[in-house]
Design a protein that fits this description.
362 residues, alpha/beta, 8-stranded parallel sheet, 5-stranded mixed sheet, 15 strands
Length: 362
Amino acid sequence: MSEQHQKYTTGTRRITRQVNIGGVKVGGNAPISVQTMTKTKTEDVAGTVAQIKAAADAGVDIVRVTVNDKEAAAAMTEIVKQSPVPIVADIHFNHIFALRAIEAGVAKVRINPGNIGSKDRIRQVLMAAKERGIPIRIGVNSGSLEEDILQRHGYPTAEALYESAMRHVGICDEFNFTDVIISVKSTDVKLMIEAYRLVAERTDIPLHLGVTEAGPTRSGTIKSAVGIGALLAEGIGDTIRVSLTDDPVKEVEVGKEILRSLNLASRNIELIACPTCGRLDVDLFKIMGELEEKLANVKKSVTIAVLGCVVNGPGEASAADIGIASGKGVGILYRKGKMIKHVKESEIVATILEEVEKFQPS
């Protein structure tokens, strides 16, 4: 393990150069941003904008949109105009679509320069991006490595992903274009972690973290939390995207929760509850279900703990901003560590809602 990587494992944030994505700074000391990607057909402007706005309401910072045909390219001007957040154009192979997206006013382009043909085509895209101050994300994927790199390494490895990324960075360097971000994604979480570590150790380029094609919500959330979370805990990563076979809003919610779990983003409501066992003295499932529903849209940083028995309940409830330690059909209300009163089981939800309404974060 290198000395630099040892430093990351202490939790120190990796120092990188900084890029600006439509006003959202990525890298340096900027907060870690959350991204998603629309799932609509891009030419459906109304549907695409509706997804972008829903993601923005959920707290997304940046949204990526595929530009994969002429109709999609033609729609980008209106999409950018209506979007409340910066838009990234996702381009594969076709440099004309990249140029059209830049003309439409996108804030970043995701493209691999080596995949768009001649050096003149590369130069056109890089110069157009440079003229408008638009960064480029070099997005390497273990499933689409160049054939010569695969032959040399035998199969996708961390070194292979790193080599591919740096090949594209080298092309940008030829044209004096340094406003880049790198991603080295894989469906293999361990491989993804190792590849990002290599880039982090050897460059100062900001990193876009993600587990590619992570899968359905349950398994994809777990894989993303493990891969992205492990790197963030080491101080590696500047912007993240959770890839799920689900609505973009769900991707944003999971991404933000990963950041919150590491204290890298402020929380709104945080609900804590015991896992339940045979000691349970109240209907904790019903109580927590009602609280989740009724507090879903509350934008206030407050920790609420509801515990189902008297074994660990008093200690854990008193450590929260608002806590309930339950006994047989009753609960003891704690407010910032102080015991306030006893409440009936039937009154627990209403009591907590009242406390949240009155709560003033310190």
